[in-house]
Write a structure and sequence with these properties.
The structure is a homodimer. Chain A is α+β, with helices and mostly antiparallel strands and about 220 residues long. Helix content of chain A is about 40%, strand content about 20%. In chain A, strand 1 and strand 2 form a beta hairpin. In chain A, helix 2 packs across helix 3. Chain A is globular. At the A-B interface, helix 5 and helix 6 of A face helix 5 and helix 6 of B. The structure holds a DNA duplex (30 and 30 nucleotides).
DNA sequence: GCTGAAATTTAGATGTGGCTAAACTTCAGA
DNA sequence: TCTGAAGTTTAGCCACATCTAAATTTCAGC
């Protein structure tokens, strides 16, 4: 609803949404700048614009928070992105580690009609190929609590749900070893100081490096 | 190859290509402006930019002509556009008269990988849903000689190949009457002064208004 | 409470692609 | 050949989203 926004504004809304989910409290200009890979000055001026559009509340020098309208913009783009990822992977056979970049540009030009046709064709899926939840048509998203695999101790059981950032190399590495979102695992052993985590998926135990284990989001066995 | 160009530059290249096909000789600034729905001043400055990029040759006050590089840019975009139209119509069931607008924005963000996957999925089609030829991967296009249906006289036979511009209302009107590219017809009668053309498609004779008849491109029976 | 480093914002620039208004070219008709 | 209308280009402006450099604010540590 309301005025259409530019791709840049959509990207900022998406970034702020994602930062709000992780950190608590207001999102800082610096965090946005880092996420968007622009200078802090650029982020600052875009924040001012988003505030002018009513998409964020901005307390100068204090940080930024999405308004309900800003949340809508963010979730709409995220819905586009994740539907597209799912569609590209499923219908066109785009490799798991390539779908993110393709979706990143397509998400901004996807019409509502096409969005709906794609969603219908896929049977209204709830998760993308990375395991991230897809907001529903009315922009409700199922954000389960997940933790980093790295934070678990030996003996824990869980389900690998997604990779928190979209590093193609990590995705490829996991895909090659047959590890995908939804797979259950058990932590067999864990080395201290960022050392590898030994996790058993099915019959096989994999040594997962510190960075990888930090990026892997898991749901604890209830 | 060479530097990537902006969406705007791609659109101008496409427009100039299309204008070159119709009129003979150099393409005028005014024609480009009208086609792009911008002022002549805007077209003029973009022409200067295209010339700087080596995509057109520009004789000031005289007109513009695509260079081989400009032709490549145009054909690449046209390939994207027409593959997308075909894909949207065939795989996603987008209505015939809507595919043009959807493709218009998607064509600029389609990666080469996705283009290839789409082409393969469709079995490397040679024509889009409007009957326009799709340039091959190496940018060869089969531009048959077509004439306007309006230019035919009573008694002529031909095959309807496409609508020269992409007016949704015209496309819808034809679709409703079951007239599609590839259909053969015979001119039964023709009124003078832009009056209707009576064309028989199958068993039915349709009265086609002057504007519509002018937009319908046909191949004459050999 | 002061103070300096870090974070943030402002100032002023750039490049893209539009616009209007004004100047300039071309060319057909008198 | 001259002249005016049509076509084209230039000049100068705007919005967008970025940048660097220079202010400004915040806050932790003394």
């Amino acid at each position: 609803m309301s005025h259409p926004v530019s791709s840049a504004v959509e990207d900022y809304a998406k970034a702020i949404y994602s930062l709000e989910r992780r950190k608590k409290g207001a999102v800082t200009t610096n965090a946005i700048a880092e996420r968007m890979e622009v200078t802090a000055a650029s982020a600052s001026s875009m924040v001012k614009k988003l505030a002018g559009l009513g998409l964020v509340r901005h307390a100068p020098y204090r940080g930024v928070e999405l308004t309900p309208r800003g949340l809508e913009v963010a979730l709409e783009v995220i819905r586009h992105h994740r539907l597209l990822e799912r569609y590209l992977a499923e219908e066109l056979g785009v490799p798991w580690d390539r779908v993110h970049d393709e979706a990143e540009v397509l998400e901004h030009v996807l019409s509502e009609e096409l969005e709906e046709l794609i969603a219908a064709k896929l049977g209204h899926p709830t998760h993308d190929p990375h395991g991230d939840p897809i907001p529903s048509r009315d922009l409700v998203i199922d954000e389960r609590d997940t933790v980093s695999l790295q934070s678990l101790d030996a003996g824990s059981n869980g389900v690998f749900t997604r990779i928190s950032d979209s590093d193609p190399a990590m995705l490829r590495w996991l895909a090659e070893r047959g590890i995908a979102p939804g797979d259950s695992f058990k932590i067999v052993d864990k080395q201290p100081f960022g050392g590898p985590v030994f996790a058993q998926f099915g019959q096989t135990t994999h040594a997962l490096g510190g960075e990888l284990a930090a990026a892997m989001r898991v749901e604890l066995e209830r």
